[in-house]
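dumping these here so i dont lose them again. two proteins, back to back, each one seq then structure tokens. dont judge the mess
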Amino acid sequence: EVINSSFDAIDADFSELIFNNAIVNESGNDCFDFSYGNYLIKNSNIFRCGDKGISVGEASTLKINNATIKDSTTGIASKDFAEVELNNGKIYNTKYCLKAYNKKQEFSGGFIKAKNSTCNETNQFVLNKDKNSEIIYNQ
């Protein structure tokens, strides 16, 4: 559990980590920020992130099961060859629920697959992606 972080609440690079029952409340920037690794988040509640609820980049993979993300600019962002799989997600009060894009020149876009998930209490996700990225939801 992380509460009132000034910057990124949880920032992991070059790792293989599993998070069980994670709670992040109030972060000045991203609540979770992952790079260059393999990650799993099981059962999470993520609230009031200054930028992204979950940010994944630099060829990382992330699987998320049972997540609630609320009150952030972006719910989940995948960039720079990162791959994200979301199962049973609830994303509320965000500008973008899912965002996939290319940020760094040496990489390309991101990928997100969301299943059994809702955005702002509907199945109509607010998406943002560039031409090098892909988002698949509720299929």
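---- next one ----
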Amino acid sequence: LHEKYITSGYFNLLGDPTEKEIEEVVDYIKHLDIGVATCISLTQTKNKIHDLVSSVKLMTMAVKVFAILLAVVCLINLALLNFKERTREIATMKVLGFSLPEIARSLIYEVLILTVVGSCLGLCIGYPLLYLILSINQNNYVSFLYYIAPGSYILGVVLAVVTSLVVN
């Protein structure tokens, strides 16, 4: 037996058919006994792709919002913890003659250095996280480009440093 297996096919309808006429052709092809498993119009395909991309955008936005909230909460918690653990050191620095601006500057420098190092380490997992999120939404309609613009990495570090400065 030499049966032909067609994985996909496209039909170009002559003229300028209306959406209703296209749907009638799709329904007719579905009901033929020629081995067609699925038949959808271009409009239906575009709608499916739009729905898929919208859900990916929504998921990405949710990840962004929760990442920013988590960063702010963690930075506030770390700043308070750092200050409480350093009360003796701060008192010792006062006794040694350091002024409050000098003490504050040294603590802020330390926090900024730790923020930059932590941001760089955290950004290293950005691409694997992107791959994970987009691979969850794989389908036959759309293929995603796994790409993060270099400016996004810079923006991430800048936002972390600014947030750290504001919190401290």
